[in-house]
Amino acid sequence: MSDEARIKYYDFSKFPPIPGVTPLTPLTVATTAATQTTLATLKLKHIRPDDRQVLSASIDLTFTGTIPAQTGALTVATLTVTYRIWRDAVNTGTLVAQFRDTLATQIAAAATTFTAIGTTSFKVTDTLAPKGNHTYFLTAEVTGFSALNAAGAAVAITTPVVSVGSLELNGFVVDENES
Where are any strands of DSSP class E within the chain? Predict the structure, then answer.
């Protein structure tokens, strides 16, 4: 046996879809508390207990909202999102990994609307999957959003919207024993 391994299965999920494929409906992440939104799924096959599954994701988010007009200096709006990768089912399956990211933007004193755009990327390896085929789910949950004025006082955000501009979820099975 060699020290090398080989990829024996690959799958991906992409939004917006590949040109020529029927487009998906736009994805919006819920801004209500404790609501996970499934962003993408993929299925990896022919997994054995000594294999490893490598998953990587890249998500472009847009956070928009409306605030009351502020006098004085800038207001800062922040959004915190928790991303999770689940094996076999959301919530009841195996949590493979979880990542938290924060997006912030400065809002000019006279502005009443804002838009923040950010990208999150991560990679994880699952080495505990039992033999068989497994479906992986990428979810996002808004775990907080706020706005603070220059004095540090909270500013209400009305009509907050978090939407996915694009995303890509890739996964492959690496055969550790070349069987």
Answer: 6-15, 28-29, 36-47, 52-66, 75-87, 94-107, 113-126, 132-148, 158-175
